Amino acid sequence: MKGSFLFMLVARAGLVLAVLLFLAAWHLANRRIAEATRALCFDDATRVPKREVGLVLGCTRYLRTGRPNRYFAHRIDAAAALFHAGKIDRVLVSGASHRGEVDEAQSMKEALIEQGVPEGRIVCDHFGYRTIDSVLRASEVFDCREFVVISQRFHIERALYVTRHRGIDAIGFAARDVSRLGGRAVRGREVFARIRALLDVHVLGTRPRTLERG
User: Would you place residue 31 in the very low, low, confident or very high pLDDT band (cuts 50, 70, 90)?
Assistant: First the structure.
Protein backbone atom coordinates (compact mmCIF):
# COMPACT_ATOMS: atom_id res chain seq x y z
CA MET A 1 0.00 0.00 0.00
CA LYS A 2 2.80 2.38 0.91
CA GLY A 3 4.62 1.66 -2.35
CA SER A 4 1.46 2.29 -4.35
CA PHE A 5 0.93 5.61 -2.60
CA LEU A 6 4.51 6.72 -3.34
CA PHE A 7 4.08 5.71 -6.97
CA MET A 8 0.96 7.87 -7.23
CA LEU A 9 2.77 10.83 -5.71
CA VAL A 10 5.69 10.46 -8.14
CA ALA A 11 3.31 10.08 -11.08
CA ARG A 12 1.38 13.20 -10.12
CA ALA A 13 4.57 15.16 -9.57
CA GLY A 14 5.78 14.05 -12.99
CA LEU A 15 2.53 15.16 -14.58
CA VAL A 16 2.68 18.55 -12.90
CA LEU A 17 6.30 18.98 -14.01
CA ALA A 18 5.41 18.04 -17.59
CA VAL A 19 2.58 20.59 -17.64
CA LEU A 20 4.83 23.31 -16.23
CA LEU A 21 7.53 22.56 -18.80
CA PHE A 22 4.97 22.68 -21.61
CA LEU A 23 3.60 26.02 -20.40
CA ALA A 24 7.11 27.41 -20.16
CA ALA A 25 7.89 26.24 -23.69
CA TRP A 26 4.64 27.78 -24.97
CA HIS A 27 5.36 31.10 -23.26
CA LEU A 28 8.89 31.18 -24.70
CA ALA A 29 7.74 30.28 -28.20
CA ASN A 30 4.85 32.72 -28.21
CA ARG A 31 6.87 35.65 -26.89
CA ARG A 32 9.90 34.99 -29.07
CA ILE A 33 7.92 34.63 -32.30
CA ALA A 34 5.69 37.66 -31.64
CA GLU A 35 8.57 39.97 -30.71
CA ALA A 36 10.78 38.87 -33.61
CA THR A 37 8.13 39.56 -36.26
CA ARG A 38 6.15 42.50 -34.87
CA ALA A 39 7.74 45.07 -37.19
CA LEU A 40 7.14 42.88 -40.25
CA CYS A 41 3.34 42.60 -39.92
CA PHE A 42 0.89 45.12 -41.37
CA ASP A 43 -2.84 45.51 -40.71
CA ASP A 44 -3.49 48.40 -43.08
CA ALA A 45 -3.24 47.64 -46.81
CA THR A 46 -2.24 51.22 -47.62
CA ARG A 47 0.90 50.84 -45.49
CA VAL A 48 2.08 47.56 -46.99
CA PRO A 49 5.30 48.07 -49.00
CA LYS A 50 5.06 47.07 -52.66
CA ARG A 51 6.08 43.47 -53.34
CA GLU A 52 5.92 41.41 -56.50
CA VAL A 53 4.19 38.41 -54.93
CA GLY A 54 1.56 37.81 -52.30
CA LEU A 55 1.73 34.35 -50.72
CA VAL A 56 -1.64 33.17 -49.40
CA LEU A 57 -1.32 30.41 -46.81
CA GLY A 58 -3.88 27.70 -47.33
CA CYS A 59 -6.87 26.30 -45.52
CA THR A 60 -10.06 24.62 -46.67
CA ARG A 61 -12.88 26.64 -48.17
CA TYR A 62 -15.49 24.74 -46.20
CA LEU A 63 -15.51 23.23 -42.74
CA ARG A 64 -16.34 19.58 -42.15
CA THR A 65 -19.86 20.69 -41.30
CA GLY A 66 -20.20 22.13 -44.80
CA ARG A 67 -20.27 25.70 -43.57
CA PRO A 68 -17.97 28.32 -45.17
CA ASN A 69 -14.59 28.67 -43.47
CA ARG A 70 -14.21 32.29 -42.38
CA TYR A 71 -10.43 31.97 -42.16
CA PHE A 72 -10.43 31.11 -45.86
CA ALA A 73 -12.82 33.91 -46.80
CA HIS A 74 -10.87 36.56 -44.90
CA ARG A 75 -7.55 35.50 -46.44
CA ILE A 76 -9.01 35.70 -49.93
CA ASP A 77 -10.47 39.13 -49.16
CA ALA A 78 -7.06 40.33 -47.94
CA ALA A 79 -5.19 38.99 -50.96
CA ALA A 80 -7.70 40.50 -53.40
CA ALA A 81 -7.52 43.84 -51.59
CA LEU A 82 -3.72 43.94 -51.88
CA PHE A 83 -3.84 43.02 -55.56
CA HIS A 84 -6.46 45.62 -56.46
CA ALA A 85 -4.54 48.23 -54.44
CA GLY A 86 -1.49 47.57 -56.61
CA LYS A 87 0.56 46.30 -53.66
CA ILE A 88 1.27 42.94 -55.31
CA ASP A 89 1.49 41.89 -58.97
CA ARG A 90 0.96 38.15 -58.61
CA VAL A 91 -0.58 35.80 -56.08
CA LEU A 92 0.91 32.47 -55.05
CA VAL A 93 -1.69 30.28 -53.34
CA SER A 94 -0.17 27.48 -51.32
CA GLY A 95 -2.04 24.61 -49.70
CA ALA A 96 -2.18 20.88 -49.07
CA SER A 97 -3.89 19.63 -52.18
CA HIS A 98 -3.30 15.91 -51.97
CA ARG A 99 -5.59 14.94 -49.10
CA GLY A 100 -8.52 13.07 -50.54
CA GLU A 101 -10.78 15.34 -52.57
CA VAL A 102 -9.71 18.65 -51.01
CA ASP A 103 -7.61 20.95 -53.20
CA GLU A 104 -6.82 24.02 -51.11
CA ALA A 105 -4.71 25.77 -53.74
CA GLN A 106 -7.30 25.37 -56.50
CA SER A 107 -10.07 26.51 -54.17
CA MET A 108 -8.12 29.67 -53.34
CA LYS A 109 -7.43 30.32 -57.01
CA GLU A 110 -11.14 30.02 -57.87
CA ALA A 111 -12.09 32.33 -55.00
CA LEU A 112 -9.58 34.96 -56.11
CA ILE A 113 -10.88 34.84 -59.67
CA GLU A 114 -14.37 35.42 -58.27
CA GLN A 115 -12.98 38.59 -56.67
CA GLY A 116 -11.61 39.89 -59.97
CA VAL A 117 -7.98 38.74 -59.81
CA PRO A 118 -6.99 37.62 -63.34
CA GLU A 119 -6.33 33.89 -63.64
CA GLY A 120 -3.00 34.56 -65.32
CA ARG A 121 -1.78 36.38 -62.21
CA ILE A 122 -2.41 33.42 -59.90
CA VAL A 123 0.02 30.53 -59.38
CA CYS A 124 -0.83 27.38 -57.42
CA ASP A 125 1.52 25.52 -55.10
CA HIS A 126 -0.11 22.17 -54.44
CA PHE A 127 2.58 21.02 -52.00
CA GLY A 128 2.09 23.48 -49.16
CA TYR A 129 1.61 20.73 -46.58
CA ARG A 130 2.74 22.94 -43.70
CA THR A 131 3.48 26.62 -43.22
CA ILE A 132 7.21 25.97 -43.39
CA ASP A 133 6.73 24.15 -46.70
CA SER A 134 4.78 27.08 -48.14
CA VAL A 135 7.27 29.82 -47.28
CA LEU A 136 10.42 27.87 -48.15
CA ARG A 137 8.96 26.59 -51.41
CA ALA A 138 7.91 30.14 -52.36
CA SER A 139 11.58 31.09 -52.24
CA GLU A 140 13.29 27.93 -53.43
CA VAL A 141 10.81 26.47 -55.91
CA PHE A 142 8.89 29.49 -57.21
CA ASP A 143 11.88 31.83 -57.03
CA CYS A 144 10.06 34.57 -55.10
CA ARG A 145 12.77 36.99 -54.02
CA GLU A 146 10.44 39.05 -51.85
CA PHE A 147 6.83 38.52 -50.95
CA VAL A 148 3.94 39.36 -48.65
CA VAL A 149 2.59 36.52 -46.52
CA ILE A 150 -1.20 36.74 -46.28
CA SER A 151 -3.09 35.04 -43.46
CA GLN A 152 -4.32 35.84 -39.95
CA ARG A 153 -1.75 37.61 -37.77
CA PHE A 154 -1.02 34.67 -35.47
CA HIS A 155 -0.28 32.54 -38.55
CA ILE A 156 1.78 35.22 -40.26
CA GLU A 157 4.00 35.65 -37.21
CA ARG A 158 4.93 31.98 -37.27
CA ALA A 159 5.57 32.05 -41.02
CA LEU A 160 7.74 35.15 -40.79
CA TYR A 161 9.75 33.66 -37.94
CA VAL A 162 10.81 30.95 -40.39
CA THR A 163 11.60 33.35 -43.25
CA ARG A 164 13.53 35.68 -40.96
CA HIS A 165 15.82 32.87 -39.85
CA ARG A 166 16.22 31.46 -43.36
CA GLY A 167 17.29 34.76 -44.93
CA ILE A 168 14.10 35.30 -46.94
CA ASP A 169 12.80 38.82 -47.58
CA ALA A 170 9.18 38.57 -46.48
CA ILE A 171 6.63 40.75 -44.73
CA GLY A 172 3.04 40.02 -43.71
CA PHE A 173 -0.43 41.43 -44.24
CA ALA A 174 -2.94 40.33 -41.62
CA ALA A 175 -6.34 39.21 -42.81
CA ARG A 176 -9.35 39.71 -40.59
CA ASP A 177 -9.32 37.23 -37.71
CA VAL A 178 -12.11 34.91 -36.60
CA SER A 179 -13.80 35.40 -33.24
CA ARG A 180 -12.26 33.51 -30.33
CA LEU A 181 -15.33 31.30 -30.08
CA GLY A 182 -15.33 30.39 -33.76
CA GLY A 183 -11.57 30.00 -33.93
CA ARG A 184 -11.06 28.09 -30.68
CA ALA A 185 -9.83 24.89 -32.33
CA VAL A 186 -7.38 26.77 -34.55
CA ARG A 187 -6.06 28.71 -31.59
CA GLY A 188 -5.57 25.49 -29.70
CA ARG A 189 -3.48 24.01 -32.51
CA GLU A 190 -1.41 27.18 -32.66
CA VAL A 191 -0.06 26.48 -29.17
CA PHE A 192 1.66 23.34 -30.43
CA ALA A 193 2.50 24.87 -33.83
CA ARG A 194 4.57 27.65 -32.26
CA ILE A 195 6.62 25.25 -30.19
CA ARG A 196 7.17 23.13 -33.27
CA ALA A 197 8.23 26.20 -35.26
CA LEU A 198 11.07 26.87 -32.82
CA LEU A 199 12.15 23.25 -33.08
CA ASP A 200 11.96 23.39 -36.89
CA VAL A 201 14.16 26.47 -37.04
CA HIS A 202 16.64 25.99 -34.22
CA VAL A 203 16.88 22.23 -33.70
CA LEU A 204 15.64 20.17 -36.63
CA GLY A 205 16.59 22.37 -39.58
CA THR A 206 13.36 21.26 -41.25
CA ARG A 207 13.19 21.34 -45.04
CA PRO A 208 10.14 21.19 -47.35
CA ARG A 209 8.72 17.72 -47.81
CA THR A 210 9.30 18.05 -51.55
CA LEU A 211 10.88 20.56 -53.91
CA GLU A 212 8.76 19.35 -56.82
CA ARG A 213 7.03 22.13 -58.67
CA GLY A 214 3.31 21.67 -58.82
Answer: confident
